[in-house]
Structure formats: C-alpha cells, structure tokens
Amino acid sequence: MRDLKKNQKQSRKVRQNKLNKQAKPLNWRKLLRRTLRVGTTVFSAVLIIVGGFFVTQLLLTSDLFRIDQIRVQGNQRLSEEQIEALSDIEMGVNTFHLDLQLIGQKIEENPWVKEVQVQRIFPRQVVITLQEREPVAIVNLGYLYYLDSQGEIFKVLGAGDNLDFPIVTGFNQEKAQQHDAEYAQYLRQIVALLDDLKNRQLFSIDQVSEIHHEAGGQLSIYTLAGGVEVKLGYTGHSKKLDRLEKIYAQLQPKLQVLDYIDLNVNEKVIVRIERLKKNGQS
C-alpha cells in the first residue's frame, strides 16, 4: 500500500511538471529576432538579384564596352584583314556579347591556323593571338598536300603556294586522310629525317628532291641532282647519313651515272653504277 501511494504521488509530480512546461509563455523577443533575421536575408538576396540584373543590363547596353579595335599577333602568312574576316567580329558590338570560344573555332577553320587564343581587353579591345603551321614537305596523295612540322597533313596546295619543299611519296590517300595511327608514326619519322637533313653540311635538305616511303616503313631519299636513290631502310637513319657524308664529296660529281646508294649494310656504303651501262647500250 505504501508503494502504491508513493507511485501515485510521483505520477502527480510528473503530470504537474508537464503542465508547467506546457504553460511556459512564448519568448516573443527571440521569435521576433529570428523573423527579422530571415526577412533581412531574403531582402538582401532579392536586392542582389535585382541589382545584378540592372548592372548586367547596363554592361550589355553601355557604349563604354563597344569594340573599336581588333589586334592580331603571331600571324606570318595570314594578314590581319584575313583573320578579322574569319573572326566575324563586328565593330561596335558589345564586348560581353562576344563568344570567344566560337570566334576561335571560326578562325581555326583556316588550315594555316594551328592554335588561336582570343582575349577581351577592357573596355573596347579584342586581341587574337595565332600560332600558324609551318610546312616542311609536300605529300603526294593524288593531290599535293602540305606536311607540317608535327607530321600532320593539313592543306591542299593551291595557286600561289610555295612548291620549294621535298616531295613525300608512297602513302595511301585513304589511310592518310583517316589519320591511320601507323601512318601518323611514319609521317613523324619523315619529319625527324627532314630535321636531321636541315642540320647537315655535306648532304643537306637542299640536295633532296624526294623522300619515298615503302610498304613496311622503309625509307629512301632521292637526290635533287641525278635523282639517285639513297636507301635508308627502317631505322638508324642518322648514323647511315653520317657514313654517306664521309664519301659524298667523292660521289657528288658522279651522281649522273649512279643507279642507287645503299646504306643498309653495317659500316659500308654500297654504290651501284648501272646507268653508265644503260647509256652505253642506248
């Protein structure tokens, strides 16, 4: 009985505590502070959005940001007028209306352009910086194409284009235009050979008329004087040309009667004199 009375007293205390808690008055000051804080945040956000809208409209319509100068730099072959025409930028357009990426893509449609960077210079200027391609040879694929210093075929030769480059032959047009990986490697190998020839004194690029690529990757050079084939094979071209240069001064006066020069035998230069026989028979 005592326990029962004790439990009843404890239950009454718990109920009384709940009632006391429920009857606790609201803290209006705290509630007002929260309401003001939320209202201030919302008002600030609205103010920023509206202000941003008006600032944007001001920038897009202000005469202060109308383009009045296009500056082109890095161009060698293409004129400033050609680049400006490719960019399709109209004088007087607002600088914030320009799509710089799209302008760059338009300029890169010209095959001479390798890379381009378009920049806004506030308030009224656009700067176009070019990196043009450098042709190192002409590839015969039925039509004649320029080959650049990275081993990429990039342009069909047209009227007025410079023809004073070595001719590269032996490549299949379809594979070359499909950017065949094996062909790309062979073309880079030819560019490396051309770079080697540019740095030579006795047998230099000025004495080369053609570089021929054979099936499987073998290379041959044809001399400008006499059209003599110089067989280089697959690899080790630089060392083979070193051997040729040691005796080239003796061979040069006789190029008209040589059939070919073979550099594929270690430490030797094999020379075949056959034209003399053919000329004698004729």
From TrEMBL:
UniProt domain POTRA: residue ranges: 65-133
Predominant location category: membrane
Subcellular location: Cell membrane; Membrane
Gene3D superfamilies registered for this protein in UniProt: Cell division protein FtsQ/DivIB, membrane protein fhac
Keywords: Cell cycle, Cell division, Cell inner membrane, Cell membrane, Membrane, Transmembrane, Transmembrane helix
Acyltransferase keyword on record: no
Transmembrane segments: 38-60
One Pfam family named in its UniProt record: FtsQ_DivIB_C
GO-annotated cellular components: cell division site; plasma membrane
Its membrane topology: Single-pass type II membrane protein
Listed InterPro entries: Cell_div_FtsQ/DivIB_C, FtsQ, FtsQ_C_sf, POTRA, POTRA_FtsQ_type
Domain of life: Bacteria
GO BP terms, alphabetized: cell septum assembly; FtsZ-dependent cytokinesis
UniProt xrefs under PANTHER family: CELL DIVISION PROTEIN FTSQ
Chain's role: Essential cell division protein.
Family affiliation: Belongs to the FtsQ/DivIB family. FtsQ subfamily.
Protein name: Cell division protein FtsQ
Organism of derivation: Desulfuromusa kysingii
Gene from which the chain derives: ftsQ
